Amino acid sequence: MTDLYAEALSTFAILYGEAKSSGTEVEPNAMTLATATPDGRPSARTVLLKAFDELGFVFYTHTHSQKGRELHDNPWAALLFLWRSLREAGIQVRVEGTVTAVSDAEADAYFASRPRQSQLGAWASIQSETLDSREAFETRMAEMEARFAGADVPRPDGWSGYRVAPEAIEFWYGAQFRLHERWRYECDAAGVWSKRMLFP
After folding, report:
1. CA 51/CA 20 separation, integer angstroms
2. Angle at the Cα of 97 (from 123 to 65), degrees rounded to 5?
3. What's the pLDDT score for residue 128?
4. Exposure on the CB side of residue 150, measured as CA atoms within 13 A
């Protein structure tokens, strides 16, 4: 890691720690994930950060969901963390970068750590596809409970994780009267990181 990239990750770790220990942020690992189709149609939804390190920020989902299909066709994404209760007037962190799938070993290990009902839900859900009724989903859940009764639930095909490798990280520190403070870290095509302050 370059010094500036290490600085950006350290800053994120400090802020994330503050959010987790604040007692006021209900789900500090919640982040908006923005994806786009190859022709530029954007979509966004909230997912949960499950890991981060110098390689990037990791979340898990069905690979055949809308976001999975978009990431397959256009492997770029933006993340947004919003911690409204922190410091003077909230903090936002924006991350932009390329996306790759995590390894099977990583996905297997994380899936094994999930609550059993969540594991069964991953089998029962055909994510982003049309569902006739809630009862139909509950029936699928019951079928999966019967199928895996008395056994460990394996990770289903098509359920995995994605890692967003940052090419830009921006920290937004809220202030009264919209006099915010913004710092942006960026990586150029040669892999060199820079840091600059932005107008609010």
Report:
1. 14
2. 20
3. 87
4. 0
Can you name the residues that pair with 163 across neighbouring β-strands? Answer: 58, 100
Give the side-chain half-sphere CA count within 13 A for 88: 10
CB 94 within 8 A of CB 31: no
Q: Say how far apart CA 24 and CA 8 lie, in whole Å.
A: 24
Taking the CA atoms of 61, 63, 69 and 71 in sequence, report the sign of the dihedral they define: positive
pLDDT tens by residue, 20-41? 999 999 999 999 999 999 999 9
- Structure token pair of residue 174: 């809220």
- Which of the following is catalytic: 94, 163, 178, 196? 178
Please state whether the predicted TM-score (pTM) of the whole model is above 0.85: yes
**CA–CA separation, 141 vs 118, rounded Å?**
10
Ramachandran angles phi, psi of 133, nearest 5°: -165, 160
In this structure, the number of other CB atoms found within 10 A of the CB of residue 103 comes to: 12
Residue 90 zone, left/alpha/beta (φ > 0; ψ -120 to 50; rest): left
pLDDT in tens, 152-166: 999 999 999 999 999
Is 178 assigned a catalytic role? yes
Residue 49 token pair:
């950060």
